[in-house]
Amino acid sequence: MEQDISEKAISFLRRLEAYDFAGCRAMCSGGATVWQNDGQGERAIDATLRQFEAFAADVDTLRYDVIRQFRNADEVLQQQVLHLSRADGSVSKVHAAVCFRFESGGLIDRIEECIYAVPTTEAL
Question: Which residues does residue 92 pair with via DSSP β-bridges, in sequence order?
Answer without folding.
Answer: 84, 119
